[in-house]
Amino acid sequence: MVFRFSGWLVFLMVSSGLAPSASIAQTTPVDLVRAVRLEAPIDFCGEPVPLENAAVAERFEKEMLLSLWDRDQAVLWLKRSTRYLPTIEKLLAEAGLPDDLKYVAIAESALRPHAGSPKGAIGFWQFLAETGRKYGLRIDSRIDERRSLLASTRAAIRYLQKLHADLGSWSLSVAAFNMGEEGLKAEILAQDTRDYYRLYLPLETQRYLFRILSAKLILTHPERYGFHMTAADFYPPLASSEVELTCWEETSLLVIAKAAGTDFKVIKDLNPAIRGHYLAAGNYRLNLPIGGNEGFQERFQAGHEAWRVLRSERVYIVKEGDNLSSIAEQFGVPLPALLIWNRLDARRPIHPGDRLIIHPEASD
User: Fold this and answer.
1) In the chain, where do the E strands start and end?
2) How far is it, in rounded angstroms, from Cα 363 to Cα 329?
3) What residues does 247 pair with on adjacent strands?
């Protein structure tokens, strides 16, 4: 058995209203002691991991056991791998970088485009805004390319190339990716060693490479760790067709969705870098559902023009004594919808003479 107290754990989960997930039930229990016994040496990007060092072996085993304990998460790693890793693998290969670097994205975000941290890191590779912009990502109130698989992976490649050129090893490079290059360089100088495994670093960074290695081992040999997956268990890639769109003025994503013959949600899911409900004026490459690009430009132009006309016909001029709540009540629309249509902040006051758009269907 995996855990002697598993029955007590299930009792606690059920009694608290939390039922065991299907993914736990569908995985095979493994002998955890045997699971962390390695049959062969392991490496990261071709650099041997010195497991003959008892302290290093203990650090590895701890992260491996934690990853195997969180079996729901490991199942999701596996399921998402077929959706996102082929793109990362292709970009790494084109840049001449080691394939093992793809596991950094798993350790950072579990391959979730909208993953965020308390420190403000966002996206597949968990870039802070300042670092993301430094390596070419657009990050503003309208677009956040940290959530784009292609853009963020290209930025991560540029960053990792720079770190490796400076530090000379991939283990140090990913440590710097986690804690910041200046902090790592300071510790190298203070401790007089360039060996990741001998450096005393922030505890998260000391664990970081071993978390990456646990993802590598589980994804490389899932059956060895009790994950028996069939082809149908994996998530398919997000199939899409690309279109170039020039917006001469602010554009509604709903208009784009209708022109592509799909829903607002599909456009957001295929283009996670887009923030909010509108595109600002500019040039874009958008992902649409397969076939949605055929005749898209003509449908978009007609739909956008109709949207502009309707908006111009439904302008409300704010009067003395108005507030957002009273206006929403007057037109029978939800206050959040009024905020979305006009990109308003509920904390900021409106003033007499302001022009507000009221959605045509909601105001009839």
Assistant:
1) 43-44, 47-48, 241-247, 251-252, 278-279, 282-288, 315-317, 355-357
2) 11
3) 282
CB 27 within 8 A of CB 218: no
Two tokens, residue 253: 């994503």
Angle at CA 296, nearest 5°, toward 294 and 300? 170
Pick from 164, 126, 169: which is nearest to 147 by CA?
126
Note whether 85 and 101 are within 8 A (CB).
no
- Is the Cβ–Cβ distance between 145 and 171 less than 8 Å? no
Q: Which residues of 35-45 are buried (b: 16+ CB within 10 A; e: fewer)?
A: bbeeeeeeebb
The pLDDT tens digits of the residues spanning 304-340 come to: 988 887 766 577 777 788 888 887 877 778 888 888 8
Residues whose CB is less than 8 angstroms from the CB of residue 189 and which lie 6 or more positions away in sequence, other chains included: none
DSSP code per residue over 244-299: EEEESS-EEHHHHHHHTTS-HHHHHHH-TTB-SSEEPSEEEEEEE-TTTTTTHHHH
Q: What is d(CA 2, CA 172) in angstroms, rounded to the nearest whole number? A: 34
Q: Which residue type is seen at 158? A: R
At residue 20, the 3 state secondary structure works out as: coil
Domains defined along the chain, listed by start = 29-227 (1.10.530.10), 241-363 (no CATH)
340/349 Cα distance (integer angstroms): 15
pLDDT surpassing 70 at residue 160: yes
Q: Give the mean pLDDT of 337-362.
A: 75
User: 277 φ, ψ to 5°?
Assistant: -110, 5
Cα 98 to its chain centre, rounded Å, is 21
148, 189, 193: which is closest to 171 by C-alpha? 193
Is the model's pTM score more than 0.70?
Answer: yes
Burial of 95 (0-12, 13-18, 19+ CB in 10 A): middle
Are 48 and 100 within 8 A, CB to CB?
A: no
What is d(CA 9, CA 107) in angstroms, rounded to the nearest whole number? 26
